[in-house]
Structure formats: C-alpha cells, structure tokens
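Question (not urgent): is this output format expected?
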Amino acid sequence: MAKSVTTRSKSRKPAGRNEGNAGGGARVSVSPAQIYDQLRQRIATRTYPPGMRLSESDLANEFGLSRTPVRQALQRLATDGLVSIKNGVGVTVTDLDRAEIDQAYYLRCQLAAMIGHTAPRPPSPQDMADLKALHGRVKALLNRRGAMPLNEFSELCERFHNLVNNVIGSRMLRDFIEILYHQTDRFWFGWMGEADMRAEVTHFLHEVEETQRALEINDFEAVGYIRRNHITMMLARMAALRDEAQG
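Got this back:
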C-alpha cells in the first residue's frame, strides 16, 4: 500500500511565501515550473520515495498558491513518468523494477554517445563560466569535513547535467536525455546511503574536469563519450553494491 505524504516540512521554509509578511503582505510568485523543479528534486533524492502519495492540497498550502499551478506541475511530472495520477487513488510517485532501471540506463548510455553527432553547438561564455563555478563548488564540497550533503550533491549534478545538455543541438535528443536522467537519478541517489559518497563526489569531479577540457576545444564527441563512460562506470559500481547486498 502506498504511503501518504505530508508535504509541509518543519525544516523547509514554504516556498512562495514572503518571509516577514505576517500581516498579509504580498507573496513571492512561484511558477508551475519552479514547483515542478522542487518536486522533481525531492523525488530524485527520495524525500518522496517510490510509492508515496502526494497531496495536491498540502502542496498548495506549502507553496502558498491555489491548486491550479500545483496541478500543472504534477501533470508535468506525470508526463515524465515520475508520478502516476489516477482517479480515486490520487498522485503517487512511480517506481521501476530492476529490468526497467537497467533498460533506462542502457538508453542513457546510447543517447549520450550521440551528443557529438547531432548538430552540437558550442557552449556560450556564460556556460563556460558556470561550468568553472560548478567545478569550484564540487572541489569545495570535497574539501569539506564530515558527511557529504546529498541535497547539495544532487543540485550540483543537476546543474552539470543542464550545462552538458546545452551543447545538444537536437531538441528531440535533448528531451529524451532529460526524461531518462530524471527517471534514473532517483535510483542512483537512492543507493548513496550504501556507497562511499566521498568517492562518488570524486568521480563526479573527474567528469566535470574532463568535460571542461573537451568543451574548451569544442570536442563534442569527447563530451558525449565522457558522459557515457562515467554512466557505465557508475553502473558497474552500483551493480557491485547490489550484488553484495543480495549475496
């Protein structure tokens, strides 16, 4: 049976409310796209695990909005296959079985290798500046003592994914990669509790550095193969942990 989720969190400030306006002042506008991004991130990091039910009214209260923009965000998540919306059941975070997860990752690897062959476009100066800033944040994360914060790591992975996708000239390829990334990242982050997270951040840093070097010389084929190779190596690490748990 699916669990029900209370979407209001004591530790999270309700998005969309203007802090300090207890007297009923103006609220900060939150778009359906921003709601979608936040909910997708919660699904990615398993704040909302597979099988959990999401309450449209609770989310509307959290974001300080009517139910209409929340419904639009949930419908977009359903289009991506991240939630299921059924009459009489409500909104439920979807799940994939092992075979489906493996198929999704296989497709990601194949599509990543196509990045340099489908009308790639040079990164803008802003893209390169953003990539350099991201590289600095990943290094700072590694230098930090104590446990690695999953939410920050997932945010950096998302930013890097978006920067690599900016190189893709084919809208169709970019959309397919986007959907598959968000279908699979929640399972990757899901096994972070068993993995050596500091080692995973180190692998990520290497991918960022290799991609930087490739983009500096507009070697788009290398960008695609770097992405594919790191996905493949991550799958091997995940399979080893999965087999160890079953053995």
